Amino acid sequence: MASTPFPPQDPYSLGEEAYRGGEPFIDLGYVVAIIRRNLWLIGLIIGICLAVALAVTLLARPLYTATATVQVSEASQRVLDSQDPNTEANTWDYDRFINTEVDVLTSYALAEMVENALNMSQNDRFFRAFGIRRAEVAGDGPQRQKDAVNLLRRNLDVSVPRDTRIIPLAFTSGDAGISAQVANSFAEQFIRADLKRKFDSTAYARDFVSGQLAEAKQRLETSERELNAYARSAGLIRLTDPISDENGKTGAGGSITTASLIQLNEAANAARANRIVAEARWKAASAGPLLSSQAVLADPTVSALVRRKAEVEAQLAEESSRRLDSHPDIVSRRTELSQIQADLNVSANNVRRSIRSEYDAAKAAEGALSAQVRDLKGASLSEQDSSVQYALLAREADTNRQLYDEFLQRYKQLNAQAGVSASNISVIDRAQVPAVPSSPSLFFNLGVGLLLGCAIAGGVVFLRAEMDDSIRVPEDIGDKLELPLLGVIPLETVEDFDLALGNPKSPVSEAYYSLAGSLLYATAKGLAPTILITSSQPSEGKSSTSRALASTFARMGRRVVLVDADVRCPTLHIKAGIDGEIGLTTVLTGQAALSDAVIDCAAPGFAHLPAGPIPPSPTELLGSAAMQDVIDRLAEQYDLVLIDSSPILGLADAPLLSVLVDGVLFVVEAGKARRGALKTSLRRLKAMRPNILGGVLTKFDPVDVSNSYSSYYGYDYYTYNKAGGAGAG
Prior knowledge:
The protein is built from 25 helices and 14 strands. The protein has 729 residues and is of the alpha/beta class. It has a domain at 15-19 and 474-718: Rossmann fold (3-Layer(aba) Sandwich). The chain is elongated.
């Protein structure tokens, strides 16, 4: 590297300002220039597209579009008072609802309903409306019907409404009458399909409930049969009818055993009470004298005998007061009294015995009933054990009966409500037979052709511009190579180049002065002391640029040495008219001293170091430490060291030299250099991580460019008139 250190500079650090100049990222003027350059191609493409659109319009078969409109509400009205909750309005999800309705309108099932209603598969006019002849249609079987359905679906246009519940149904065909007929049929079948779906949904519910009802009935019958079978096997006889029970349940109680136990228990209690009463009467009757018992005295016979006895005793007392004891009347009274007393004793004893008999009968009845109650208690306890399973079966029968009743009630309700809902769809406008065709439209097709032509032309121009890898204008240095643009050198013939370069007022000299000015500020520290000048391919103006820059900087008062490092094809010594036998290669091989090889030119401050003889291995010489030493020594003696190297493609000379200098100037020929070659060269060069100062565009022909970019580039250079004044040349 040169003795004066220049830190490596990012080759893109100055590039954006250099080749953008603060302009917008999309240069509209450049775009317009590209369009003007390809104007003939754009016009040709647009013309072809317009011609195709016109031909399509003239050759196309006229089509007619008929439109019917239907209104779709979120909920339908019910004829009955009861409202199905599934039909309630769902306004929060209206978008999904209306999209669902549109999908139903475009479904295969609805198109099939329309085909069945209109029998379009057997209508040759329908197929002719789409330009299909009968011979082109499949047989009269299902395939023909399927083709008709597909035609209906493909030519139906259903738009999703926005902020409205009106859905337009547009059908297009080559027959105006067919279009109106099919559009109206779609609207009608849409309503029928909606009602059919509701009826089918209710029918499904009815079928489901009917099935559940049959199952519930079967379960009820089975459970009741099992209940009866168990009661029969267990010997259980129930008095309660499970169907006529006031609570509607089959009770586990109410058996004959229980009823008998209750009745016998009541009878036993009554017998016990009777026995207690009879026992009390007997005790009262047997405790005292025979006629002292109230039970005896209460007897009618005894009471009659007692009254008769009293009467006879009264008569006997009266007769005794008047007669003797032997008087027949007294004897008769006494005999009668004895008989009454005897009868009274017999009757009293009979009454006492009857009380005893009643007591004994009551006691016996009590004992018998108590024994029967004890027996029935045991039977009842045994029956209760059997009634546990009976109660479970009875409870299951009750549950099945309730389910059966509920299903039966729901089934009756569904039968009453089936199909009584009004449709939430109504026809707003029926389709009318169109009087004029909807297509083809000449203006529409021409507009489409124009837009399509513009799009194709834009794409073609864009692809052409992208695939055009030539560097035509200065902006291509930045856009395509991503390098800062340092200068633009106008095109001059080889014969006139040296003359123009020698004239300080020529456009070529002015261009190189501008390039030299850019190099003065190409780095952060100003002009780089050592600069390598290279290009991607030969004959791009690399050597001419080296000579011109050396001469320009020399006229600017700099001490400049121009090194011809293109040792494979040296030309600088020929242009300068000097001897090239001693030069760079002889210095690097040690055959000559550097001071002997450097030749001063006529211009002050300008020296040449020719290439010297062509060596057998140029790459080894240029990449050696001796080359670095030569560059360092020249940098100490001169203000600027310009090195003209060989092209980059196919050679390693320039990349090796790029790491030995402070900056690299990349030369590009306008209109010749190919972008692919340039990119490859730059990749090889950047792989060495050099300090690329920028690019210079040579052989630029502004006249040729202005023909293509006349609205973007002016091509008149500012020149001098013969009188010494300035003017436009």
